[in-house]
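Lab meeting minutes (informal)
Scribe: AK
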Amino acid sequence: MLLVLPVDLDDDLGRKTGFSTPVIGRDDVEAAAVELATADPEDSDLNVLFQAVHTYDELVADETVNEEVAVAAVTGVDGGDVQANRAVGAEVDTVLAALSTGEDVRAIVITDGAQDESVLPVIRSRVPLDGVRRVVVRQAQDLESIYYTMKQVLADPETRGTILVPLGVLLLIYPFSVIAGILEIPGAVVLGLVSALLGLYTLFRGLGLERAVDSAADRVRNSLYAGRVTIITYVVALALLFVGGVQGLETLETVESTVGSLQPEAQVAVFVHAAVRWAAAAGVTSSMGQVTDEYLSDRFRWRYLNAPFYVVAIAIVLYGLSGYFVPPSAGGIVVRLSLSELAIALTIGTLLGVLSTLTFAVAESREEEAAGTV
């Protein structure tokens, strides 16, 4: 027996028409094709169904085919490939059981593209294949067809953004050049700016960063609506980091204007020594905001309190190291630490980190023991 087997991997037939699958028999397959054409004339799967009916009629009319011919449409599911392939396999089993013939069954698979053909190993594991027919719809390449294709492409928001945004940037090159000429700006600056914009947009689209940006915006919006403290503390922390950076640069400029230019390692030491206190304040602020939100959400753990202590411990260590490596000539402007003072700073930072870890670990352990006894 020859079985003509049209495959609809994403189940457009079932979802759009309500037909129960598999559809077995020529008349039922034709009726399903007509129903799908009525529901969605643009769906390529209806061509697969009609091609299956056509192939069935050709085989029946062919006098050289001396065996029974059957046709049945099988579908998958609108989901992952694994689930869809399993669904197609189950429907092929149903079709083979419904045919209940003693003859060996061989199949001719009808598909509309490579995606549906990914299920061929599943079908081949159940029935030998005599062939695979991919249906390609012929389109007239006239003006109306081109217009319709462009209209369909521009109606898709994702495609519209991908095509029109770079085109719009390119079209703005000339007016940008005119404005640059009026403002006496070199043309290379305009071309460089446009090239940078196109490059950033290409990277943005190529790396799929629009999803990350949308996700970040959703998280920020949800945090605002939920009244999360971290929104405020993060803003304050960024402000403190900015102030610390400015303070470090101003201190470095003051030192170099007084004692002359410094070596790179000395510049780093002066900058860190002046900015580390502000950075520590930013770290403590942001960590306390996170701890507060965890407490309000009933997810608080004692170990979370380690974060601000760790920040302070790291800040003490960095303050001591940078103060020790500050050049002697800058001692009148920034605090320069001796070797013994460096040792004290390193000891305090280490003890602070270790003691906070032990303290909160013991507190958390006792809290768990108390909860267990209750």
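Next up, CB showed the second protein from the same session:
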Amino acid sequence: MAWWSDLVDEEPDFAERVRARFAVRKHGTMATLRRDGSPRISGTEFQFEDGDLRVGSMPGALKALDLRRDPRLALHCPTEDTPEDDPGSWDGDAKIAGIAHELPPPEDGSHRFRVELTEVVLTRVGEPADHLVIESWHPGRGLHRRIRR
């Protein structure tokens, strides 16, 4: 199992750049799997606290029920528009895939999940701005960097 704290310990610079992408706005996107296996996309908030990445939802939310049934999820950071006159200024986007582990509910009955990491990806424009740099981290395999032109 790999948690956010494991990524921070192994690749602190990469972890900080990923976390910064998730911090640009309050809400990002989470993908879960419906009962029939089709994807469900939901807005969600992310919390990086005590070495964990956590997500939550209101009591009885469908995304929480999805995670109880099938804990696989994908998270996408909030997005920012790239200025047309300066595509190289785009700071990139981050994605995290993982397994949700439900935590005890708070008094309000909402759902909280701790995310076990299975993949973390950061994509950004390279220097010069004629290619993409794709960095990906997987537990047990470490950090890899690819260039796409």
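CB comment: The chain has one domain: 4-122.
No objections, moving on.
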